[in-house]
Each structure stands twice: as C-alpha cells, then as structure tokens.
Amino acid sequence: MRILVVEDEKKVASFIKKGLEEEHYAVDIAYDGEEGLALAQINEYDLILLDIMLPRLDGMEVLRQIRRNGSNMPILMLTAKDSVEDIVSGLDGGSDDYLTKPFSFAELVARVRSLLRRKAREKTDILTVGDLSLSTSTHRVKRGEREIELTPKEYALLEYFMRNPNRILTRTLITEHVWDYHFDPETNVIDVYVNYLRKKIDQGFEKKLIHTIRGSGYMMRGEP
Ligand code: CA
Predict the structure, then answer these.
(1) How many A from CA of 116 to the centre of ligand 1?
(2) Under CATH, which architecture does the 126-220 domain have?
(3) Model-level pTM?
(4) Ligand 1 centre distance from Cα of residue 52 (Å)
(5) What CATH homologous superfamily does 2-120 map to?
C-alpha cells in the first residue's frame, strides 16, 4: 500500500510519514500542491492525504485536477480550519473524507484503514455463495471448477440472488429487481426462470444453493 502525503509543514509531514511507515505503508511526501499533483499523476497511489492550505497550488485545486483527470484514488483532506465550507467543498469536489488539524495519529490511521478497506471492497467484483462465484465485470459464472453458461435473464436473476444471500426473496421482490415494468405478475415466469437456473447451477451437485421457501418465494443459501 502506497500513500502520498501532500503537506507543506515539514514537521507534520514527517510525523505522518514516520507513523504510517511504522504501520507498514510506503509513503511519498510532496511539500506543495504542484509537486503533489505531479506525483499523483505519475504514480498509482492507494491513498492521498491532502492538506488544503498549500503553496503554489492549494489542496482544493489539486483535488479538482486529480478528479478531472478521471482518477478515483481515495483522497483524505487535511484541514487546519474547522471550517464547514472547506469540508463541504472538499467533499463536493470529490474527496472521500477529511480530518481536522490537530488530529491524533490513532485517528489518522483509523481513517486511512477505513478508506483503504472501502477501496479494496470496491475492487473485488466477485460475488460468492458457497462454491458458486460470479464476476460482475466479466459475467463469468462458475460452480466449483465448472464454468456455467447463462442467458442474460438468468444471469440477472442469479446476480440478484447472490447479492442477497440468506434472505427470502419473494416473487414481488424478484419482479421489481430483475424484470422490467412490462412484466405481467399473473404469469409464472419467475418460477420458470428459477427452474432454468437450478438446472444450471444446482443439478448434479449434492449441495443445493437455491431453496424454495414455501408460500414465500426463494432463498439462496451457501451454508447448510
Ligand atoms: Ca498547510
């Protein structure tokens, strides 16, 4: 994990760097906004700690330019003033969080960890239930080592099931999330599709993942 610290107060910058290195992060420092922006454009950081009051280019402008270039690196703003305006314009400008100076190191580390966790979560696009996995980016579905081919509707239905494991999904819920508004609720289309899906993902496997909840709907469950 590599972090960029953009902070002109040398003492504060080196205090942050030393502390983060003790937490095993790799840390680069920039002492003004231009240098910070340049480093952010050259390197792929996992997180940027960005002071607002900076020489040459202020933090808000650095933030704007980073976002304008399409980067979604997590950015934690450091603000000396407990100014609501700064915080609001920072968040509006695309920062992910802020910290008001002076802050304790423990608080800084907690925020850093939470932003990095959030980023890690967004990165993984694989949904899993038991030994079934689905990639939301490639749309590949596998049960164990077996690749499963699905039609677009079956895929949409499965993705909905996998995003809501261990939850009773009524036919109404399924209709609302997977079918469009032209759907005729009088038909048994949902049951038909659930059966198609079962044939593809459960047939031949001892452990069934799609369960009928009598009188209610269906539930996807990976654990017994
Ligand atoms: Ca400053």
Answers:
(1) 24
(2) Orthogonal Bundle (1.10)
(3) 0.58
(4) 6
(5) Response regulator (3.40.50.2300)
